[in-house]
C-alpha cells in the first residue's frame, strides 16, 4: 500500500517564458486572481503523498518568491527555494543536490502546469516505487508525420504507439541522480529527465494523464486555462 507523505516534489519555475511577451517570468502571470505558480504549488501542498517541495526559480526572483508566494499564500511544505541552472536539466540537478538525505522518491514538475491532479501524483509515485521510473502522458490524438529539414515527409508513425509527455515525471531518487550524473559526465543535453533514464537502459512506465494538464507557454494557453477553471467551478 502506498504510504502517505513519502515523496519530494521538485517544481521548476526558473524559465523566462519569452513566448508570453510579458518581460517577466510566466509563472507569475495571474490566472484568475492568483499567479500560475500558486495554482501549481497548491496541488502539491495539499497532496497527502508529498512531504517536501523544492522550488527552483530564477536568481533574481528568490526574495520575491519567499515574500510574495510562500509567505503570502502560506505554503508550509516548501523547504527550499533555490536558483535554477542554465538549462532545465541543470535546474533539476540543483534540486536533486539539495533534497533530503532520506529522499527515496522524487517528482519533477513544471511550475507552469497548474492542472496536475492528485490521482496523477499518487499513481506516478506508486509506479516509480515499483518500476523505478514513471511519466505522466496522454495518447496523441492527431496523426503525426516525421519530416526532414526540407519539410518532406519521411514516414508516419503508428498513432497508437505515440504519447504526449506531461509532468510530473517520477523516479526513485538514486536512479534519477545516477542518470543525471551520467549525462553530465558525457555532456549530454536532453529535453526531459526520462530520456536520461532511458539512456541507462532502464524501463520507464507511463501513467495516463489528462488533456487538461496543459503547460502554459503562450497567451492562448491562458485563455484555455481560464476555460478549464470556469468548467471546474
Tell me what the structure shows:
With 233 residues, this protein is of the alpha/beta class. The protein has one domain: Spore Coat Polysaccharide Biosynthesis Protein SpsA, Chain A (Alpha-Beta Complex). Helix content is 35%, strand content 24%. The chain has helices at residues 36-46, 62-71, 88-98, 118-131, 173-186, 193-199, 219-232; strands at residues 7-13, 30-31, 34-35, 50-57, 78-83, 105-110, 133-139, 146-147, 153-155, 163-172, 205-208. Strands 5-4-1-6-10-7-11 form a 7-stranded mixed β-sheet, with helices on both faces. This is 2-C-methyl-D-erythritol 4-phosphate cytidylyltransferase. It is an enzyme of class 2 (transferase). The record marks 19, 26 as: Transition state stabilizer. Keywords: Isoprene biosynthesis, Nucleotidyltransferase, Transferase.
Amino acid at each position: 500500500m502506498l504510504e502517505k507523505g513519502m515523496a519530494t516534489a521538485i517544481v521548476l519555475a526558473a524559465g523566462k517564458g519569452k513566448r508570453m511577451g510579458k518581460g517577466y517570468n510566466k509563472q507569475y502571470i495571474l490566472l484568475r486572481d492568483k499567479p500560475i505558480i500558486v495554482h501549481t504549488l497548491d496541488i502539491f501542498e495539499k497532496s497527502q503523498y508529498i512531504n517536501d517541495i523544492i522550488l527552483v526559480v530564477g536568481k533574481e526572483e528568490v526574495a520575491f518568491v519567499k515574500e510574495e508566494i510562500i509567505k503570502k499564500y502560506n505554503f508550509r511544505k516548501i523547504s527550499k527555494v533555490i536558483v535554477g541552472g542554465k538549462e532545465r536539466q541543470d535546474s533539476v540537478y540543483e534540486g536533486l543536490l539539495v533534497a533530503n538525505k532520506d529522499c527515496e522518491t522524487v517528482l519533477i514538475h513544471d511550475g507552469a502546469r497548474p492542472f496536475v491532479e492528485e490521482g496523477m501524483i499518487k499513481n506516478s509515485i506508486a509506479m516509480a516505487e515499483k518500476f523505478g521510473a514513471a511519466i505522466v502522458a496522454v495518447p496523441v490524438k492527431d496523426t503525426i508525420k516525421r519530416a526532414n529539414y526540407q519539410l518532406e515527409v519521411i514516414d508516419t508513425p503508428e498513432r497508437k504507439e505515440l504519447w504526449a509527455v506531461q509532468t510530473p515525471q517520477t523516479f526513485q531518487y538514486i536512479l534519477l541522480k545516477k542518470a543525471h550524473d551520467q549525462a553530465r559526465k558525457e555532456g549530454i543535453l536532453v529535453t526531459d529527465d526520462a530520456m536520461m533514464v532511458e539512456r541507462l537502459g532502464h524501463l520507464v512506465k507511463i501513467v495516463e494523464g489528462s488533456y487538461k494538464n496543459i503547460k502554459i507557454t503562450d497567451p492562448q494557453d491562458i485563455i484555455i486555462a481560464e476555460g478549464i477553471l470556469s468548467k471546474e467551478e
